[in-house]
């Protein structure tokens, strides 16, 4: 009897265990989907750049290990950044809780992103390879040995200023010796170490520690700690002032080094992008930064192969860069980058900065975190290096140099709401629903109410006047930022730059690409292009099936198909970053989305003034947030003849993940009034069903990729199904085209061809 009971208990336990195991078939499906959207390019390089010690490529690693993606269904989704001050769902309020959270971050980060690093060796030895003087500066070249059989090596060069010391330390990679030279003149003991592409002594560390799978950047970060081991043996080193800095990939490893080694007392990271200060959640195609997929195909050796599984599911990643940077608190940290460089998102960087600042505030050290956005390309100039050393001097108490943390996207809904006071009342507007309509007359009556509610949401646009003459500007009068952004160069076209003195609307510039010949004898259709969340680049860059690249191919295809293309930077993007930074201080009753929609309206106005543009064939193509702007604009402006959007919306009233209300209001500050319904979305004044109905029966193409994590696919499909009924009532159901490709949120080559064909059909039909 006892045997039967034990057998029954064992069977129950085994059944529970089986039911708790993740479904392997689901993981295999995840892998198939991953391979479908992955960049197909292989990563082949010399031994030091292998994906892992054993594998040349990511695909090699996956096949060798047989490791499948995680059970994504069991992982929570965070559209915004995971909160560093929450532990197991409980707010962190004590120092002991924070220590627990730090250990959790370190462990999770090593598992998913960096690979596991070995403990510090205890057998450090060093040899002085060179010891000389130049202009009273002592130059020493040191070779460190450590680890199994002393086979671990790290070479470093010290530039020691005259005097007894102890000196503050400026630690950087071999690549940045010229930076070290500047720091030397500022009184720092400058130390460069061989952990960069130029000279890398860390390439064999994984072979020395085969039980540890730490990747290239973590190996280099671990190597930096071995240099600190040595610096701690020197009497001329001020241990309280050891700063590390680096640029690009070296900026990444500098952050990683400081996060895991608290003996590093300050960090300056420069233009380090994704894997540095740019969160992975804001590094997918809509943000036009370097994606996980791109890094895994080009630089597979930087990160652990597991990270690539989160391409297209970045919101499922348990840790993100804001958590890593939080490990540096309360030590001084400076985030430095150019806000228009190619693979950077200034908005995403600021989201990281604001999140990490909460930890500094919690530790009563808010003044120790800084942000330094500069103008320029990826590479640094001496003025930038000097400014970064200014930060160190201030934080090390060496000098009193003025310092200001500059931000462009300092948005907070609660502050906005408090400033509005009683001027915003939800009772001023009653929601409009589309249920029960069964005739064109019913729809038209609802449209009037829909437009009123939509205009109310967008805020009070200040009174203005129409622009004067819109025409091509003189080449010398274009914005100098356009030269830095390197606008798309389209062959077989005439480019008309609209700018100062002859701009659109209220000094709105634009690039009009026209098919040849561009003359008044032949009227051509025009497509107004509205870009995605490309904060640094505006309309310059897009993201296709393979890579972040210029929108040249998209514009070229449209021009070759007979369309003119008008491209503008939307408010807060590209050349208009600074224009959007103080918007609500300047226009407290308006909204950024209201301004964007107004800009589209003046684009339509402007296109109707060009003799060679067909005023009845003005189309809009919008991608991501540009798609949202396109839909709102077309719903309010009947002059738009046709609209195509890619990943343009997710319903407002569906209280599902992701919340479109919180995205448009709380996260980006585009439509502040929407935030009044964040807790009661069903009562929102309008939804995209009503907005799209406002476009009917005009031609509308909606592309909603199957794997778009920025939208609730089922809710989008339900909306389109209801919109299709509206088009049917008009007898124009064929004017609504809906596609759900097996893709993520990006405008691919196949989509581009479908969009062009869609616009061409409209023209032929007319």
Describe it for me?
The chain is of the alpha/beta class. It folds into 2 domains: 125-395, Alpha/Beta hydrolase fold, catalytic domain (Rossmann fold, 3-Layer(aba) Sandwich), CATH 3.40.50.1820; 477-765, Rossmann fold, CATH 3.40.50.1820. The chain is 36% helix and 16% strand. It is built from 24 helices and 21 strands. The strands form 4 sheets. It has a 9-stranded mixed beta sheet, with helices on both faces. It has an 8-stranded mixed beta sheet with strand order 12-13-17-14-18-19-20-21, with helices on both faces. A two-stranded antiparallel ribbon has the order 1-2. Strand 8 (237-247), helix 8 and strand 9 form a beta-alpha-beta unit. Helix 7 (216-231) crosses helix 8 (249-260). The longest helix is centred in the first third of the chain and has 20 residues, at 95-114.
What key attributes describe this structure?
Rossmann fold, about 35% helix, about 775 residues, 21 strands, alpha/beta, eight-stranded mixed β-sheet, 2 domains, disordered N terminus
Describe what is shown at a glance:
By secondary structure, the protein is an alpha/beta fold. The strands form 4 sheets. A 9-stranded mixed beta sheet has the order 3-4-5-7-6-8-9-10-11, with helices on both faces. The chain has an 8-stranded mixed beta sheet with strand order 12-13-17-14-18-19-20-21, with helices on both faces.
């Amino acid at each position: 009897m006892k045997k039967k009971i034990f057998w029954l208990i064992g069977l129950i336990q085994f059944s529970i265990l089986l039911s708790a195991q993740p479904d392997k078939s689901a993981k295999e499906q995840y892998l198939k989907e991953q391979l479908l959207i992955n960049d197909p390019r292989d990563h082949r390089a010399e031994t030091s750049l292998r994906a892992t010690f054993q594998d040349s490529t990511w695909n090699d690693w996956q096949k060798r290990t047989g490791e499948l993606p995680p059970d994504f269904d069991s992982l929570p989704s965070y559209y915004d950044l995971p909160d560093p001050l929450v532990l197991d769902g409980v707010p962190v309020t004590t120092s002991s809780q924070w220590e627990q959270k730090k250990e959790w971050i370190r462990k999770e980060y090593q598992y998913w992103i960096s690979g596991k690093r070995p403990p510090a060796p205890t057998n450090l030895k060093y040899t002085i390879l060179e010891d000389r003087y130049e202009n009273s500066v002592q130059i020493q070249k040191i070779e460190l040995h450590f680890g199994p059989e002393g086979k671990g090596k790290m070479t470093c060069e010290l530039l020691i200023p005259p005097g007894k010391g102890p000196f503050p330390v400026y630690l950087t990679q071999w690549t940045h010796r010229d930076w070290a030279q500047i720091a030397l003149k500022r009184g720092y003991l400058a130390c460069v170490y061989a952990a960069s592409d130029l000279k890398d002594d860390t390439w064999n560390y994984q072979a020395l520690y085969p039980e540890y799978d730490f990747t290239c950047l973590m190996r280099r970060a671990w190597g930096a700690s071995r240099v600190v081991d040595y610096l701690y043996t020197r009497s001329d080193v001020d241990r309280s002032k050891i700063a590390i800095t680096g640029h690009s990939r070296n900026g990444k490893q500098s952050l990683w080094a400081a996060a895991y080694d608290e003996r590093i007392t300050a960090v300056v990271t420069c233009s380090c992008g994704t894997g540095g200060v740019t969160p992975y959640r804001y590094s997918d195609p809509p943000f036009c930064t370097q994606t996980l997929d791109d890094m895994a195909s080009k630089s597979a050796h930087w990160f652990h192969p597991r990270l690539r599984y989160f391409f297209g599911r970045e919101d499922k990643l348990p840790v993100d860069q804001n958590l890593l940077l939080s490990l540096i608190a309360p030590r001084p940290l400076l985030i430095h980058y150019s806000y228009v460089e190619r693979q950077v998102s200034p908005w995403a960087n600021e989201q990281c900065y604001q999140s990490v600042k909460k930890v500094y505030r919690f530790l009563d050290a808010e003044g120790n975190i800084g942000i330094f956005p500069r103008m320029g390309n990826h590479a640094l100039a001496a003025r930038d290096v000097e400014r970064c050393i200014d930060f160190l001097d201030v934080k090390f108490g060496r000098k009193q140099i003025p310092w200001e943390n500059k931000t462009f996207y300092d948005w907070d809904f609660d502050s906005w709401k408090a400033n509005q006071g009683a001027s915003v009342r939800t009772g001023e507007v009653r929601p409009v629903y589309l249920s029960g309509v069964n005739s064109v007359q019913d729809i038209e009556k609802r449209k009037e109410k829909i437009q009123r509610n939509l205009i109310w949401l967008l805020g009070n646009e200040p009174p203005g006047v129409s622009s004067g003459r819109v025409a091509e500007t003189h080449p010398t009068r274009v914005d100098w930022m356009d030269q830095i952004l390197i606008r798309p160069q389209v062959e077989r076209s005439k480019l008309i730059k609209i700018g100062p003195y002859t701009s659109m609307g209220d000094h709105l510039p634009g690039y009009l690409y026209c098919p040849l010949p561009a003359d008044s004898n032949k009227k051509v259709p025009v497509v107004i292009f509205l870009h995605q969340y490309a904060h640094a680049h505006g309309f310059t860059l897009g993201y296709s099936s393979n890579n972040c690249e210029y929108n040249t191919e998209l514009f070229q295809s449209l021009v070759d198909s007979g369309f003119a293309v008008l491209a503008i930077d939307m408010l807060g993007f590209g050349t208009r970053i600074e224009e959007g930074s103080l918007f609500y201080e300047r226009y407290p009753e308006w909204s950024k989305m209201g301004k964007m929609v107004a800009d589209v309206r003046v684009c339509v106005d402007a296109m109707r003034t060009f003799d060679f543009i067909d005023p009845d064939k003005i189309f809009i193509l919008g991608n991501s947030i540009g798609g949202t702007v396109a839909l709102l604009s077309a719903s309010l402006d009947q002059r738009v003849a046709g609209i195509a959007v890619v990943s343009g919306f997710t319903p407002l009233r569906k209280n599902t993940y992701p919340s479109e209300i919180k995205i448009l209001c709380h996260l980006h500050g585009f439509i502040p009034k929407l935030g009044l319904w964040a807790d009661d979305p069903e009562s929102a004044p309008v939804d995209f069903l009503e907005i799209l109905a406002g476009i009917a029966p005009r031609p509308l193409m909606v592309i909603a990729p199957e794997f778009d994590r920025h939208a609730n696919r089922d809710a989008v499909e339900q909306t389109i199904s209801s919109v299709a009924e509206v088009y049917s009532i008009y007898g124009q159901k064929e004017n609504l085209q809906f596609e759900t490709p097996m893709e993520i949120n990006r405008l691919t080559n196949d989509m581009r061809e479908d969009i062009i064909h869609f616009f061409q059909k409209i023209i032929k039909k007319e």
